[in-house]
């Protein structure tokens, strides 16, 4: 029997507010970042972000905005890199966001390289989900107990869909109760479908929907088959 759970997380004991006022947003599943240098790019509330697995195994959320003249540094939606090279003038950043090279750096004598690192956003991983904030400088303090259902699951598939609608319009196309910046979990019996929706575009004129299909550890082959069949039906 299908069960629906709508998890609007609470931050410091208060109900999280919607939209773009400094709330937490789930931006990736950690299994999307299997190796050091694995990354995904997302736009959250007008901010291009780069979610990167670090060499020590942790995950960082960086601003995907070059510190030279503000170009978008990484253009691919996902992949793996040793360094991130801005396509405009080839400033290179490490996986931790630090400057590695500035071509023609004679012109940048005296520039403090530490000051030109990609900016870090607060982030945390809870129950396999990577969270960050919609506002730079905001701390994350989340009560995520409601997400325990995600423990001991394996990520089977991921999809990210750009929607040409505002959040309010996009929500009308989603299952009842899908929360903005929260997680909507559907337990089908054989697998979990986890959806989240956040504002994108410079002024929130578009939105992005992420879907993760998860299978419980040790699930029988029939459950995997059911999850695969569901995935095919969702992506047909
Ligand atoms: S804008 Fe990135 S190197 Fe110039």
From TrEMBL:
What Pfam families does the database record attribute to this sequence? Rieske
Q: Which UniProt keywords apply?
A: 2Fe-2S, Iron, Iron-sulfur, Metal-binding, Oxidoreductase
* Residue ranges constituting the Rieske domain according to the UniProt record: 24-98
Region Disordered: start and end of each range?
Answer: 1-21
**Which PROSITE patterns would you find in this protein's record?**
RIESKE (PS51296), RING_HYDROXYL_ALPHA (PS00570)
GO MF terms here are: 2 iron, 2 sulfur cluster binding; iron ion binding; monooxygenase activity; oxidoreductase activity, acting on paired donors, with incorporation or reduction of molecular oxygen
Report the PANTHER family cross-referenced here: CHOLINE MONOOXYGENASE, CHLOROPLASTIC
Q: Any idea what this protein is called?
A: Rieske (2Fe-2S) protein
Source species, please?
Amycolatopsis acidicola
